[in-house]
Design a protein that fits this description.
Keywords: NAD, Oxidoreductase. It catalyses: D-mannitol 1-phosphate + NAD(+) = beta-D-fructose 6-phosphate + NADH + H(+). One of its GO terms (molecular function) is mannitol-1-phosphate 5-dehydrogenase activity. By secondary structure, the protein is α/β, with parallel strands linked by helices. It has two domains: 283 residues, 3-Layer(aba) Sandwich (Rossmann fold), CATH 3.40.50; 198 residues, Orthogonal Bundle (N-(1-d-carboxylethyl)-l-norvaline Dehydrogenase, domain 2), CATH 1.10.1040. Helices cover 42% and strands 12% of the residues. It is built from 20 helices and 13 strands. A five-stranded parallel sheet has the order 6-3-2-7-8, sandwiched between helices. A three-stranded mixed sheet has the order 5-4-11, sandwiched between helices. It has a three-stranded mixed sheet with strand order 9-12-13, covered by helices on one side. Strand 4 and strand 5 form a beta hairpin. Helix 9 packs antiparallel against helix 11. The chain starts with a strand and ends with a helix.
Length: 486
């Protein structure tokens, strides 16, 4: 077994793809906040592909971690010369490993915030990209305005940055003062209009510190929208063991993913950018149709399957999507409720896309856990499913499946499954969600009466009737029987 490092790449064998470029020739051009599995299976992979073609060697990625748990990523990557193995899991059990070399550094911000700022202010840094999760943008779900909870320390006069927002705004301020053109801010999170949201929230944050800087940010900094898609489950000890047993690689934190990958990117950069289109990225003028397709079909369908699947006794997405009852339900939601809210999507056959999603979800090798899909629902349901419900209500169209999904979240959030076993609810609003959900029997509207998550849906008679009936059915006969009844 070989511990992954630059010096051993030539000894890994023909079954493992390795960087075809001289990594010592790669220089930083991108700073990325939130180096998790998805970034390493997606953006870093596309850049590595460009580098393998002898291009973009001045676009190396320097990762930044701002949260305490990011220290582990810093340590693992440093021990491996910032290399890692991306393992594509095909449905037939084939594993396709590839060592990625596009990350050339990693900074753990709490240890040395000045080093992060120096890297961001360096003129060589032309893009700052983000995968900081939906909750990382501090958006109030009802008003759409900035929620400063968690940003208080960064708003103190003269504060040393501690958040991604703090670092981005301070670095832009320093570049402006030094006469250095601003970098492009590229959000890659699952948020409708992610570039627009990033601009609005960062400008609102900057305005609380310096109104002139906020105007500069709004007018001079570019924020391209993009849609990103690749199922990337949490890496397990079994994944590490398979990599070592089958390919002889000891990797402290490999990444596993499905074969499918898609990146639709708005060509709205303030300066240079990598030639992403040469490695399969779709460069378009308008990302919105593609992002709505993904958010309301793929992402919302993940929520449609995860709570009901978990309550029915399943633990993995592929188990759910090999069950015809669930497949029919998911296709019904996508066809009758999700798709009618979409604008035309250029170049996409939506019927084929819906069935492709089922095939992707059913990949038994990916082993995407329902627990992962059920986590942080308060950041997901309001962005992915509530807009579908509101549009369907406004057009007097079908909402039964969507109402059942919300009810299944409320049932799941009670914290006890149908066998009486505890459910670990993982959410930044866990305490509030569980408290409301545990009132479900006595007050069926308690859960959806939270205006921060559902706005005024609890006042819509048609939605309330469908939701209450679904919740009552989940309590009375359980998730599977409820689906059969539907």
């Amino acid at each position: 077994m070989t511990a992954l490092a630059t010096g051993v790449l030539g000894a890994l064998g023909n079954d493992v793809a390795v960087p075809a470029y001289d990594r010592t020739a790669v220089t930083p051009g991108i700073v990325h906040f939130g180096v998790g599995g998805f970034h390493r299976a997606h953006q870093a992979m596309y850049l590595d592909a460009l580098m393998n073609d002898g291009k973009a060697l001045d676009w190396g990625i320097v990762g930044v971690g701002v949260l305490p748990h990011d220290r582990r990523m810093a340590d693992v990557l440093a021990a491996q010369d910032h290399l890692y193995t991306l393992v594509v899991k095909h449905p037939d059990g084939t594993l396709e490993p590839r060592v990625i070399g596009s990350i050339v550094g990693y900074l753990f911000a709490p240890d040395d915030p000045d080093a992060v700022l120096d890297r961001m202010v360096d003129p060589a840094t032309r893009i700052v990209s983000l995968t900081i999760t939906e909750g990382g943008y501090h958006v109030n779900q009802v008003t759409g305005e900035l929620d400063t909870t968690g940003l208080e320390a960064d708003l103190e006069p003269g504060a040393t940055p501690g958040s991604a927002f703090g670092f981005v705004v301070e670095a832009l301020a320093r570049r402006r003062a030094a006469g250095i053109p601003p970098f492009t801010v590229m959000s890659c999170d699952n948020i409708p209009g992610n570039g627009h949201v990033a601009r609005k929230m960062l400008a609102a944050f900057a305005r609380l510190k310096d109104p002139e800087l906020a105007s500069y940010l709004e007018n001079e900094v570019r924020f391209p929208n993009c849609m990103v898609d690749r199922i990337t489950p949490v890496t397990t000890d079994g994944d590490r063991a398979a990599l070592s047993e089958r390919f002889g690689i000891e990797d402290g934190w490999p990444v596993v993913c499905e074969p499918f990958t898609q990146w639709v990117l708005e060509d709205d950069f303030g300066g240079e950018r990598p030639a992403y289109e040469q490695v399969g990225v779709q460069i378009v003028e308008d990302v919105e149709p593609y992002e709505l397709m993904k958010l309301r079909l793929l992402n919302a369908s993940h929520q449609a399957l995860c709570y009901l699947g978990y309550l029915s006794g399943y633990r993995y997405a592929h188990e759910v999507c090999q069950d015809k009852l669930f497949v029919d339900f998911l296709l019904g939601y996508m066809t009758e409720e999700g798709t009618p809210t979409l604008p035309p999507v250029p170049g996409v056959d939506l019927d084929a896309y819906r069935h492709q999603l089922i095939e992707r979800f059913a990949n038994p090798e990916v082993k995407d856990t329902l627990a992962r899909l059920c986590a942080e629902s308060s950041d997901r349901i309001p962005k992915w499913l509530v807009p579908v419900i509101r549009e369907q209500l406004a057009a007097d169209r079908e909402i039964r499946a969507s109402a059942l999904v919300v009810a299944s979240w409320a049932r799941y959030a009670e914290g006890v499954d149908e066998q009486g076993q505890p459910i670990e609810v993982v959410d930044r609003l866990r305490d509030k969600l569980v408290e409301r959900a545990q009132q479900n029997v006595d007050d069926p509207l308690a859960f959806i009466s939270d205006p921060d998550l559902f706005a005024d849906l609890a006042q819509n008679g048609r939605f309330v009737a469908e939701y209450a009936a679904a919740l009552d059915s989940l309590h009375e006969i359980g998730a599977r029987a409820t689906l059969e009844r539907l």
